[in-house]
Specification:
2 domains, mainly alpha, elongated, 4 helices, 82 residues
């Protein structure tokens, strides 16, 4: 019984992903779907991130000083330093 429920769930998940991909492709063709908006880097980015990478402040303190949330700070930080 559990095997059947698992198989049905997996089949439904596959269908959802396929419909999502199709919807995004149609929206892109129509020019509606443009993805995530670019993130503006704060003006005080360089001194604060240098303090963070050198260990003088924590990531949490850097985010507070920059006024960024973790989901915004992390991509910017990984893009800048990788």
């Amino acid at each position: 019984m559990l095997t059947m429920i698992g198989a049905i769930n997996e089949f439904e998940r596959t269908n959802i992903l396929e419909r999502t991909r199709e919807g995004i492709a149609i929206a892109k063709r129509e020019g509606v779907y443009k993805g995530r908006k670019p993130i503006d880097v704060p003006e005080n980015w360089d001194p604060i991130t240098k303090a963070w990478t050198s260990g003088r402040i924590t990531a949490r303190e850097a985010m507070q000083q920059l006024g960024l949330k973790p989901n915004t700070f992390s991509p910017l930080a990984s893009f800048t330093f990788s």
